[in-house]
Amino acid sequence: FQMVNGVAQPVGPPYSILWEDGSTGPYATGYLLNINYVKVTGPVEGDTCFWEDTYKPSCICRSRPLAYCEQPIIKYCYPDGSVVYSPGPPQISWYGVSGASAYELEFTYDNSSGCCEVPPTLPPNITVNASPFVIPDSWNCFTIRVRALNPDGICTVTEWSDPYTYCRETTSCSPTIITCGCCEGRSNEQINLPVTVVEENVLLGYLKEHKGANYKSLESALESVGALPAETRVNVYPNPARTQLAVEISGKGPGVYTFEMYDALGKKVLSRQMNSSEGIHTFDISHFAPAVYTWRVIGDTNDKIVEKGKVVVVP
């Protein structure tokens, strides 16, 4: 292989990759989403090698965009059926957790798949500094789990990844597990990501699921993870990035309404007029600091609150 702009490319005949969607390319790299079937052809017409990959692991906490968890493995298949991995031999790789001091790998032997009759000599748990872990030649079959140690300096470990069973004989084209996770949301290294607008019920649902507690209010949930509303560490919900809050008043009757938004101290931070004939109104709050905000819609004649809610702006 040779490195071209940081990408490993095979040296030799111009192999062509034909993707399921009909697109072609000399090599596979980058973020290729929602593709689970690959056909690779060699220089001689008719010499074709096939493999199927599906890499959509469950992310314990999606601290990064989902695309990072779905990035496929780069590998090349030659006409004789042999497979070459880029940038090297078969390996276990994973996406790191921000701030982790190390990663613990757990190896176990399970012959339920009938992969190999003689169990390999596996070590006790291994601690490594970073991905990847190159699979030794003598390791023909094993099951592995990965977890991060001391992520962000806050908690001791993350949850274990889902187990992955490696069999050199039957899955030599796909010997890689990719996992991602986090401890309590985005870290200071990721604050440059776009802000996220999260409705209170969505955030509470997330915290109930991942923290295992029956929270009664958004404030109590945030406090439980050390993210008080008045602090800038309100970063516990890694939703896909959104920078606008949408409010619908089409069913509130004709007229002009006032939208108001307040911070945790009760200070009005946004006020806009809304016409009911326009239906859904969107408000850009990308410039707001990470915090908990309340909002309300007031009628144009009697100052009656006709709609209200609470949102969290997350970095």
What this model shows, in words?
A hairpin with a 6-residue loop joins strand 20 and strand 21. The protein has two domains: 2-167, no CATH class; 191-315, Sandwich (Immunoglobulin-like), CATH 2.60.40. The longest helix is centred in the middle third of the chain and has 12 residues, at 200-211. Mean pLDDT is 59; it is low at 7-15, 26-88, 171-196 and 225-241. The strands form seven sheets. The chain has a five-stranded antiparallel beta sheet. The chain has a four-stranded antiparallel beta sheet with strand order 4-3-5-6, with no helix packed on it. The chain contains three helices and 21 strands. With 315 residues, the protein is mainly beta.
Quick structural gist:
The protein has 315 residues and is mainly beta. 8% of the residues lie in helices and 32% in strands.
Blueprint (SSEs and pairs):
Layout: E1 2-4, E2 7-9, E3 16-19, E4 24-25, E5 37-41, E6 48-52, H1 66-70, E7 75-77, E8 83-85, E9 91-92, E10 102-108, E11 126-128, E12 133-134, E13 141-149, E14 164-167, E15 196-199, H2 200-211, H3 218-224, E16 244-248, E17 256-262, E18 268-275, E19 280-284, E20 291-298, E21 305-314
Antiparallel strand pairs: 1-2, 3-4, 3-5, 5-6, 7-8, 9-12, 10-11, 10-13, 13-14, 15-21, 16-19, 17-18, 17-20, 20-21
